[in-house]
Design a protein that fits this description.
The complex is a heterodimer of chains A (168) and B (100). Helix content of chain A is 73%, strand content 0%. Chain A is mainly α. Chain B is an all-alpha fold and 100 residues long. Chain B has a domain at 27-88: Helix Hairpins. Chain B contains 3 helices and no strands. Chain B is elongated. Classes of the chains: A mainly alpha (168), B mainly alpha (100). At the A-B interface, helix 1, helix 2, helix 3, helix 4 and helix 5 of A face helix 1, helix 2 and helix 3 of B.
């Protein structure tokens, strides 16, 4: 019962703040609502017994990436952009196509729910010391992808510095 | 207990909202934020399936996706700063240097 209350609360919070992210006019408010959506997702991870991902989501996403976004917004905050049109000229076509794609995906899950084992609740967790198991998998089987991800981060860091430098 | 399909519905809803943000908004920073929203929705999917199957690989993939999102945000915002310095605009439909 408590499980369900927690899940539906965080799901509603995530959905509402996601809608506000794509509809608000002020870009700082968009960033704040994106932080709310990410924290609600972190709550859902905790409810799914993914403790390590929960803390990674809070520290890295809500703490790190969003600080980067807010920094850039503050660097190039334009008062003019509040008075410009917020949606592009083909917004109705884009909205229609996006809704068609979304309806297809949701229909696929709704149909597949009776065939595949989505419909039942997930079994009582087999991932009990979840952080330990994730660590073993990450540093055992997925060692090479982990190292490649570190190189990716290095490349991204150098790329960001070069891009934002005064004289290119 | 909550059926796995409810997690999938939540994730698909967030993903669709992200697509709507990407295709309708003009501000590039909001487009980047919508992409973050979509990546986040995929993570919910991966973790829910990981719970269903009982293996930690979904968590590992979610960690890789978060790494990717960090790299993408850093490079994307660097490009935005560089572009803003040259053209004084943040609107995606005015970014037409390559259009003849």
């Amino acid at each position: 019962m408590l499980d369900q209350i927690v899940f539906y609360f965080f799901a509603a919070l995530a959905a509402i703040s996601a809608v506000l992210v794509v509809t608000r006019r002020n870009i700082v408010q968009c960033a704040i609502f994106l932080i709310t959506a990410l924290l609600a997702t972190a709550g859902i991870f905790l409810q799914l017994h993914a403790e390590f991902l929960f803390i990674v989501q809070v520290i890295l996403y809500a703490g790190g990436i969003m600080v980067l976004f807010v920094f850039v917004i503050m660097l190039i905050n334009l008062d003019i952009s509040l008075h410009q049109a917020q949606y592009n000229r083909q917004w109705w076509l884009g909205l229609l196509l996006a809704l068609v794609v979304g309806a297809h995906l949701i229909l696929a899950v709704a149909v597949g729910r009776s065939v595949l084992p989505f419909g039942e609740p997930a079994p009582a967790t087999m991932l009990e010391p979840s952080t330990q198991i994730v660590g073993r998998t990450l540093f055992g089987e997925y060692m090479l992808p982990f190292e490649i991800a570190s190189i990716l981060l290095l490349v991204a860091m150098i790329g960001a510095v070069v891009m934002a430098k005064k004289k290119v | 207990m909550i059926p796995t399909s409810h997690y999938l519905f939540l994730s698909l809803g967030l993903f669709t909202i992200g697509i709507i943000g990407v295709v309708t908004r003009r501000n590039v920073i909001i487009i980047l934020m919508s992409i973050e929203l979509m990546l986040n929705a995929v993570n919910i999917n991966l973790v829910a399936f990981s719970r269903l199957v009982g293996s930690a690989e979904g968590h590992v993939f979610a960690i890789f996706i978060i790494t990717d999102a960090a790299a993408e945000a850093a490079v994307g915002l660097g490009i935005i700063i560089s572009f803003f310095r040259n053209r004084e605009t943040l609107l995606s439909d005015e970014m037409d240097l390559l259009k003849w």
